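Researcher: Re-running this chain for the archive, since the previous output was lost when a drive failed. Same request as before.
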Amino acid sequence: MNESSMPSHDQDDYRTLADAIPQIVWSAHADGSIEYFNRAWYRYTGLSERASLADGWASIVHRDDIDRVVARWKLSIATGQPHEVEFRMLAPGGTYRWFVGRAQAVLGDGGIVTKWYGGCTDIDDLKRAEAALRENAATFRRLANSLPQIVWIADANGKNTFLNHRWHDYTGIPQARPHDLSEAMHPDDYARTVAIWQAAIGTGSTFETEFRLRRVDDVYRWFLVRAVPVRGADDAIVEWFGSCTDVDDKKRAEAEVRAALERERRTATTLQRAFLTHRMPEIDGFTFDAVYRPAERDEVGGDWYDAIALDDGRIVVSIGDVAGHGLDAAVVMGNVRQAIRVVAQVADHDPVAMLDTIDRTLTRESPDTIVTAFIGIIDPTHSTLTFASAGHPPPLLCSHSTVSELAARGLPLGLRAAAASAPATTVPLPAMGLLVLYTDGLVEATRDLEEGERRLREASVCVALEGAEHPAEAIQTSVLRNGAQDDVAVLTVAFTAQSASRRVA
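Model: Regenerated C-alpha cells:
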C-alpha cells in the first residue's frame, strides 16, 4: 500500500498500529503481488521499499526454500485457501533465520478474493529448539524455559507432559498443578481446538490453530499454536512438541485494517452516489436513461455518466472512468464530472477544448491520475452530434438495424499534453435511433473483449429496434450475464419521432 487509497487518518492509524507489531505484517493484491510491508520487515531485511514490493521479497528467501514457497503461494492464490509455509530468510548480516509465513484471503461478494493479509513470524528459535530436543530432552527443557514463547510437550495420546516457565509466568498457574493447556483456554475456542487436535493425533499431521489464552490478569490474548510429532525408530509417534506464539497484536491490526477498508468503502460509495446524476434532462423528443453497477468484488470505482441541458438548447453528454478504485477514485470522478459541467458553459461548444481544459486542471491538482472520458454535444436544431474522446471506448449510434462506432482519437486526461489533440468530429443524428455510451467494465466483464463488444452491439440494436422502458439497464443486463469484475456505467439517449418532427419544423 505504498499508494494507499485509504483515507489519510485511517492509513496513519493502520500504519502506526502495524509498525508497532514486532512480527512482519504485509498485504497483497488479489494476484499475490505484495503491496505493503510494515516496519519490522525493513528492520529485519535491510531492503528498500522498491526492492521489497511486488515479488522483490523472493530475493532473500533461501535458495533451497524458494521453489516450495512460490509453489505454495501460487496454490493459495489459485484456490483462495489459507497460505502457510516455513522458510529461511536472509538478514543483512548474511545469516538466515526460519520464519513461518501465513496469509488469509479477504473475500468479496461471490467469494472472489479481493486482497490478502499475511505475516511472517520468526520461528528460528523454535526450529532450533525442536532440533535440540530430538537429541536431548533435558537440553530442550533448558532451552524451552529460556524462550519467550510458550513451549510444551504432549505424549502420543495428546496429554500434556511439559509446559515451560513462560506458560506459568503468563497464566499464573502454579507449576505444581497438572499440565493442561485447556485450563486457560477461552471457552468459545475449546471445542474447535479439541477437534483439530484429535484430528492431528489421528493422522499424525502437524497441528496448527489459533485460540485465546487467559493471562494472569484475566485478559485473553490470541496465540498461534503449532505442534509436530516426534517419531521413534519404528515410525510410531512418541510425543508431540508444540509452541504457543502471541499473535494478538497482529490479529488486532488485521481487524483494524478490515474496519478501515470498510469505512473507506462506505465513504466512497456515499460520494459516488452523491456525484452521479439522478435526474436526467427532460427534453421533447429525447429520452435519457442511465445505470451504474459496482464491481462484484465490492470495490467502488471511478466511473460516471452525465447529461446536462444548456441554455441554448444543446445537450452535453459525458461518460468516463478514473483509473483505480476506492475513495481517491470517487473524489477525482466527482471533480472531473463537475469540471465538465462548468466548462460546458464557456467552451464554445467544442468538446476538444473542454477535455484539454480539464486535462490541465487534472494534471495540476491530481498528478499521476489517468482518466478516460467521452464528451458529446447534441444539437437538436441541426440534428448533429459533435464529440471528442480522451482514450475512452467509442459509443455506439444505432438506427434501424445498423450500428456505428463513434471512434475518435485522443489521449486520456492526465496525458493529453504529450500529443496534440485531434479536432472534434460532427456526425448527423438519425431521425430515430439510440446513442449508447458505456465504460470499459461492460465489455471486459466476459474476459473476452471481442465477445463483450459483440454482446454490446447485439443488445444495442435489439433495444433500438424493439424499445425498452429502461434501455441502459436492458443493455447492461444483456451484456453482463455472469456479473461484473469492474464497475460499469451505461448512458443511453433515444431519439424519437417527436424529436424528428421538431427538427423538421
